[in-house]
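Course assignment 3, question 2. Fill in each field.
Student: A.L.
Task: Predict the tertiary structure for the chain below.
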Amino acid sequence: MSGSGQGQRRMGRGGRPMFILSEDSQRTQGEDAQSSNISAGKAVSESVRTTLGPRGMDKMLVTDDGDVTITNDGATILNTMDIEHPAAQMIVEVAETQEEEVGDGTTTAAVLAGELLAKAEDLLEQDVHPTTIVEGYAQARGIAMDVVDDLTLEGDVDDDLLQQVAESSMTGKGTGDVTTERLAEVVVDAIRRAEREDGVDRDAVRVHTQVGASSSATELVEGLVEDAEPAHKNMPRSVEDATVLATDGTFGVRETEVDAEYTVEDVDQLTAAMDAEDRQLRELADAIDEAGVDVVFSHSSIDDRTAAYLAENGILAFEDVDDETTTTIAQTTGGQRTSKPDEIEDDELGHADSVRVEKYDDDDRVFVEGGAEAQTVTVFVRGGTEHVIDELERALEDALDVVTAAVDTGGVVPGAGATEINLASRIRDEAAGIEGRKQLAVEAFADAVEVLPRTLAENTGMDPIDALVDLRAANDDEEGRAGVISTGETGEIADPVEKGVLDPAAVKREAVESATESATMIVRIDDVIAAE
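Answer field:
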């Protein structure tokens, strides 16, 4: 039953109509609401399905302003699309949750959510109650989580395994002229440097992009890379064994606390006032020099005269450094951020092996390397064009996140669809022991999970039905373990572990969890009330 533009009413006492919704409300109920929501969710899922896997296709996204993004990253695609339907937006939220929690698997989660909705639609047409579907899906999800645990490879997650995880996450994504193997080495090195006793400090790994040169020039910097230029042209552009001051203090003439006006009656008085200011600024520059400072990072602006005096003293200074970077500089170099650059305490000073300024086209970049407390590293990303560098940055961010997930959770599983095939098989086996119509929902969940290896095969150029049959047969073997491996212009059924195709177990768990949650939420909705 649908209502449109006439308000919703109920009969009150005496038979008088009582309006409970405004005249402008739009209301959709029952099967119409369920069908609309499921169709919207499926449509969003289908929009990213062809991007799944190493041979997935790219999407060109054009904004109202004409900005163009070319990518096969599921999260980027869904976030950029102008989606208005509330149920469709819930699938977008699946991708966002996946991205926030584990950094990869967004397309997997979105495709699975869409297929769960498709299977639920079939069940609804067979008069299976939504609550029964929800309960069946929840039970199947629990089985899936146990299977992921069972499939987790035994032994320590060493650097070789982490490199395979990183490569698997970047395969099929735009990386320019640099190999995924080389990028994986950079990623693992970065994460290992950010590893602490309580896990990986993901915030200690930054990604900084710079257009120009080839992607193969991408490197790991043991420290920070920031957009900044010297405050004066005569300042040095490179300082070794640098004593560093990070401050938000004033580098201009001090303001008095009392408002006062002065009358200048002749040139001598004006000259004297200007000389007094100059002395004050020079004294500030000299005080910084006498404290042994080589490099200044200032959150506030630096007066031109102060900058000139600092340059005379051979000090390299940067002004208008953003708040977060100023604090990070202090932490990285082992110093403390201060508000009094003219009264510097020894423990406020930091140290770096080197601070250097490099010019890229018309832009300056400052490199702060080898800080005394250097726990921050930067992946300095290069690329020939903005499109290349944007896609490379997305690929690296995903790789950094999945390697972090693998280190923190300590588990990886076979990739290339092998895990999903095993999930589906085990869920079907368990479904046989479930009574009532809930069994149908559990079996439907198993069928939905198989959309992932089927799509991988299809995108790789294989016949999806034949590939699915072969995968089932190979994985039903006691010692079998098989997935869809991309080779040349097509693919093959092979052991993903032997081929080095691995995924963090956490990515699989989160994809199943978030996809199930969103699908069941949509299935339970039978009434949509929208204000206009």
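Instructor remarks: The first strand starts at residue 2 and ends at 4. Residues 1-7 have pLDDT under 50 and may be disordered.
Grade: pending
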